[in-house]
Structure formats: structure tokens, C-alpha cells
Write a structure and sequence with these properties.
Elements (H helix, E strand, L loop, with lengths): L1 E4 L5 H8 L3 E4 L5 H7 L5 E4 L7 H6 L5 E4 L9 H6 L3 E3 L6 H17 L1 H9 L17 E5 L3 H12 L3 E5 L5 H6 L3 E2 L2 H7 L2 E4 L13 H6 L4 E5 L8 H9 L3 E6 L18 E3 L8 H19 L22 H17 L8 E7 L8 H12 L12 H7 L3 E7 L8 E6 L6 E7 L2 E7 L2 E6 L3 E8 L4 H11 L4 E8 L5 E8 L5 H8 L4 E8 L1
Parallel strand pairs: 1-2, 1-3, 3-4, 4-5, 6-7, 6-9, 7-8, 9-10, 10-11, 11-12, 13-14
Antiparallel strand pairs: 13-15, 15-16, 16-17, 17-18, 19-21, 19-22, 20-21
This protein binds nicotinamide-adenine-dinucleotide.
């Protein structure tokens, strides 16, 4: 078996591979050269610099596995790999400690003006007054994102005598408490922290999470650290916040464009920059090399490693009849996590399969629920091979129960979370389409698709009209509407399908109407 490595990989990883296969390390190949030699290899290992295109995958007639030494797989055409039966694996866990240590290094460098003082000395200056720093002991560190890296940063900051608070709406509060960290709202963290450090993945929700509004919420004179992804920060807004003196400083390891071109943040006197060095320690490089090598070996030996990025959601042996329920399970997961927004991350998901669907192998259904719950808030791609492991890493307990069919459906799936504005939802498949048929205690029937505004309200005349008027005023078209209620003039749930998503302030206006206890926009 032959493995081609096209970017630097730490020696222990190469050695591990050599024990199982013939390994060629060929750095700096042109795309043409790579395409010419790829037919001779079963495995290809890259970092982020090699573009693994459809053309390259198609040229690799013997290719069985592509290993990415690191996390992001943007440089690999996953669809083409999947279509050609090529497994893609990555190494997502080995660099967390390195990223956390880099965060602490930046925190201390910011607090004590180390790069600026060093530069001044190189110019022959000796100015002890200009570089008076700030203590970090007894200061508050605010973490945005409390996953693998965030929690490692917390441990270290606590050791340095800092108070640590964090915002992570998808992490169970108990998990943070166990590390002596308090989970708070985003606003609280921004307003209270002396240093805010970002540790979220780049998702639809986190893009420009730090923008003019959220930067303005930060305490005057506080500092921002970003070792996550450049896109999480609106760089123009950060530049303004630093120029105006609202923020004392920033330390940035990642940028919206890398390497940054004409980025005014680079070179500002109160900004420290490093060229995406978060994972760059010798130890992390060895860890990543070993992690990817193990995964590639496993794939070559016909085993599926837990870090497989493109395993199908439905294993081939699963019957096609299950496919619509796998889709339903994912959409219910997606809805459930959005209904839990701002109520704390769930520590358990209870899945009830009613009917015949829970009788066989429930792994694809369970994985689909977890994919719906976790994928929108993470960089990892969840599939039936890695779902259980990822849930475990995120401290999310999964409980499954099988019951005979109840109600009018042959099969249905109920999800119950430990947190949420609504903690329980039930869905089924109606004429091949996924439907939610119960929200909390309310019977309803709507297709799980597009944008759905869900309101809980008192059932009285005029409620629907008031919500409709606000949406109409904003030019938002309602495609369908459903109301479920316990009794006339009792409590009700109103669900409106929308052609376009209303802005946040419109949802907030609806939520503030009298007799509405909550309004939430769910995107399926
Ligand atoms: P992780 O998935 O373990 O943790 C991310 C956490 O963010 C999760 O707990 C998740 O619940 C939370 N989250 C998701 N959406 C959120 C939101 N809208 N608001 C608040 N919290 C939210 O990921 P990780 O391994 O800890 O990595 C964190 C970040 O660091 C990622 O962006 C990763 O790419 C980056 N990273 C950078 C380097 C580097 O070299 N600079 C190295 C490693 C990781």
C-alpha cells in the first residue's frame, strides 16, 4: 500500500505510517505533478495547502483515503470524495492544548505590552513608564465558546488567579460549573469581562458575532483575543473600537483573509498579531501527525476511524425505508436545539421511537438526531460513525426508548431535551415529508422546512392578527399558519411558515406583545 504526503508532517506520524505502508513525502508538488503521480497511491495526506479537487480525486483511481492533518476540510472536495468512495479523515482533537496555550500567551502579552516593549528595546529605547501593564490576577476572563479549547483556556486562567465566565448556549451548565466557570448570557460576559476570548467555530450564527453592537457592549478599556476563526470578528468594527479607545487592545491569531492583505488591524500599536500559530507547537504537530496517521491506517485496513468526515448518514446495510425517518430525526434535532436557545445547553436528549422504526439498528436515527442538534453549532461533520463519540465529548447523554405506535401514526419520533422553551417535540413522516406533529403539549401539523416562527400565547381573538400585522409591515410573507391549543381561550402555540427570515428585532417585538410568552425563529 502506498501513501503520498504532500505537506510537512511530523516525523512520528511518518514513522507510524511506514510501519504499515510505503510512504512518499513529496512537498511543493505543482497541481499538474500531483495529478500525474496520484494514480500510484491508495492514500493522500495533506494539510490546508493542497487543493484536493474533483479532478485530482478522479485521477486517483486507487485512492481510498484522504487524511487532513488538522481540522478544516475546506480544501478537499468532500462531495467528489464521497461519490468516489474515498474516505476523508481529519485530526480534530490534537491541537486544543496548543490553541489554549497560545491564548494564554496572547493574554499575558496584551496585559504586559510585551511585543511593544520588545520592539522599543530593539530600537535602543529604555522606557519603563510607557509599558506599565495591568495585572490579570483577580481580573475577569470572558470566554465566548466553551468547547475543547475554551475549557482548556479556563483551566489555565483559573490557575493564574482569574475569574472566568463564559457564554456557550449549547454547553450544559454543569460541565462549566465542574471547572469553576459560570455560564452567563453573551451580554453579561461582554459587559463584565476585562478580557474577552473567542473560542467558537465559524458558523452562520457566529459570523461577525463580534460586531459594532457587541464590541460596544464590551467594558471600556477591555481587550479582545481571537484564536478561533477570523470571520467571527467584523474587522472594520474592531478597528473602529480600537481607534476610538473603547477597547484597550486586541490580540489576533486569525483573520478573515489569511494571510491578511491591507488589513489595517495589522500594525495598530495596541494590536498584537500572530500568523495563525494557535496549533503550532512541536507537540501539537506530533499529536496531529499521529492522529491523522492512525486514522489513515485504520481506513486502509478497512476499519472506519472515528474522525471520518464523510461517512454517510445511513450505513449501506440500512433499509431504504428508514431514510425518510433519518431525515426527520435530523430536522427534529435542528428544531429542538433552536427551541433551547438561551435556556442553557442540554445535558441529555431522550429519544422515543414509536412504532416499528425503533426495532432495528437505531444508530442512523440516533446519529441523525445528534447531527441536527450539534452540527449547526460545531465545525465537525457528524455522521453515523462519529456521532456517539462527539456527543460524549460534548457531555450530551443520549437515552433511547422504544414504544409501540401511539396516536394516528404508524411511526413517530419524540425528542425531549433537558433544557428549552419547549422541551419536547414529536414528528412523523407524512407522504414522504418530515412533519412536526406536537410542540410541547400542543398538537399541530406542519412540514419541517424553511423558516418557522413559533410563538406561545394565550388563545384570544386578535393574537394572530397582531403577529400578522407586524410581519406584514416588515414585508415578510407568511406561507402557512397553524395553531394548536389546549382549550378555547386557554394556552396556544402558533407556528407560522415564513418565506424569508425576519430580523432579530422583529422577532423580539413579537415576543414582547402582551399575552405572548415567547417567540422564536426556527431555521430548518
Ligand atoms: P469545539 O467545537 O470543541 O467548541 C466550540 C464551542 O463553541 C462549543 O462548545 C459550542 O457549543 C460553542 N458554540 C457554538 N456556537 C456558539 C455560539 N453561537 N455562541 C457561543 N458558543 C457557541 O471547538 P474547539 O476545538 O474548542 O475550537 C474552537 C475554535 O478554535 C474553532 O473555531 C477552531 O477552528 C479554533 N481553533 C483555532 C486554532 C488556531 O490555530 N488558531 C487551533 C485550534 C482550534
Amino acid at each position: 500500500m502506498r501513501v503520498l504526503v504532500t505537506e510537512p508532517l511530523a516525523e512520528p506520524g511518518i514513522q507510524r505510517l511506514r510501519a504499515h505502508a510505503e510512504v512518499d513525502v513529496r512537498l511543493k508538488l505543482s497541481p499538474e505533478e500531483l495529478k500525474r503521480i496520484i494514480p500510484g497511491y491508495e492514500a493522500l495526506i495533506v494539510r490546508s495547502g493542497t487543493k484536493v479537487t474533483r479532478e485530482l480525486i478522479e485521477a486517483g483511481a486507487r485512492l481510498r483515503v484522504i487524511g487532513r492533518a488538522g481540522t478544516g476540510v475546506d480544501n478537499i472536495d468532500l462531495k467528489a470524495a464521497t461519490e468516489h468512495g474515498v474516505i476523508v479523515v481529519n485530526a480534530p482533537t490534537a491541537n486544543c492544548v496548543a490553541a489554549a496555550e497560545h491564548t494564554i500567551a496572547l493574554l499575558l502579552a496584551l496585559a504586559r505590552n510585551i511585543p511593544q516593549a520588545d520592539q522599543a528595546m530593539r530600537r535602543g529605547e529604555w522606557d519603563r513608564h510607557r509599558f506599565v501593564g495591568t495585572a490579570i490576577t483577580d481580573k475577569t476572563l470572558g470566554l465566548i465558546g466553551f468547547g475543547r479549547v475554551g475549557s482548556e483556556v479556563a483551566r489555565r486562567a483559573k490557575g493564574l488567579g482569574m475569574r472566568v465566565i463564559a457564554y456557550d448556549p449549547y454547553m450544559p451548565a454543569e460541565r462549566a460549573r465542574a471547572l469553576g466557570v459560570e455560564l452567563r448570557s453573551l451580554e453579561d460576559v461582554l459587559q463584565e469581562a476585562d478580557f474577552v476570548s473567542l473560542h467558537v467555530p465559524l458558523t452562520e450564527e457566529t459570523r461577525h458575532l463580534m460586531n459594532a453592537r457587541t464590541l460596544a457592549l464590551m467594558k471600556p478599556g477591555s481587550s479582545l483575543i481571537n484564536v478561533s476563526r477570523g470571520g467571527v470578528v467584523d474587522e472594520e468594527a474592531l478597528y473602529q473600537a480600537l481607534q476610538s479607545g473603547h477597547l484597550a487592545g486586541a490580540a489576533l491569531d486569525v483573520f478573515s483573509e489569511e494571510p491578511p492583505r491591507d488589513n489595517p488591524l495589522v500594525g495598530l500599536p495596541n494590536v498584537i498579531t500572530t500568523p495563525h500559530l494557535g496549533a503550532s507547537t512541536a507537540e501539537a504537530q506530533v499529536g496531529v501527525a499521529l492522529e491523522v496517521a492512525e486514522a489513515v491506517i485504520a481506513a486502509l485496513e478497512g476499519r472506519l476511524p472515528p474522525t471520518v468526515v464523510n461517512a454517510p448518514m445511513i450505513p449501506p446495510e440500512t433499509l431504504a425505508e428508514l431514510a425518510p425517518y433519518v431525515d426527520l430525526a435530523e430536522r427534529l434535532g435542528r428544531m429542538a436545539i433552536q427551541l433551547a436557545r438561551d435556556t442553557g445547553g442540554p445535558s441529555q436528549v431522550h429519544i422515543v421511537y414509536s412504532g416499528t422504526i425503533g426495532r432495528g439498528d437505531t444508530r442512523p436515527l440516533r446519529a441523525a438526531v445528534l447531527k441536527g442538534l450539534l452540527e449547526p453549532v460545531s465545525e465537525q461533520r457528524i455522521n453515523w460513525v462519529n456521532a456517539d463519540l462527539i456527543a460524549e465529548q460534548r457531555h450530551l447523554e443520549v437515552v433511547e426508548e422504544h414504544r409501540p405506535a401511539e396516536g394516528p401514526w404508524t411511526n413517530s419520533i419524540t425528542l425531549r431535551l433537558t433544557n428549552g422553551h419547549v422541551q419536547e417535540i414529536e414528528g412523523t413522516v407524512v407522504q414522504g415529508a418530515p412533519h412536526v406533529v406536537r410542540i410541547g403539549d400542543f398538537r399541530i401539523d406542519l412540514e419541517l422546512n424553511g423558516y418557522i416562527l413559533i410563538c406561545r400565547n394565550i388563545d384570544r381573538p386578535g393574537m394572530i392578527g397582531q403577529v400578522g400585522t407586524i410581519l406584514g409591515r416588515e414585508g415578510i410573507n407568511i406561507s402557512f399558519m397553524q395553531v394548536g391549543r389546549d382549550r378555547p381561550r386557554g394556552h396556544a402555540v402558533m407556528a407560522l411558515g415564513l418565506d424569508e427570515p425576519p430580523p432579530e428585532h422583529v422577532v423580539a417585538e413579537i415576543a414582547s406583545l402582551p399575552d405572548i410568552s415567547f417567540a422564536l425563529l426556527v431555521r430548518i
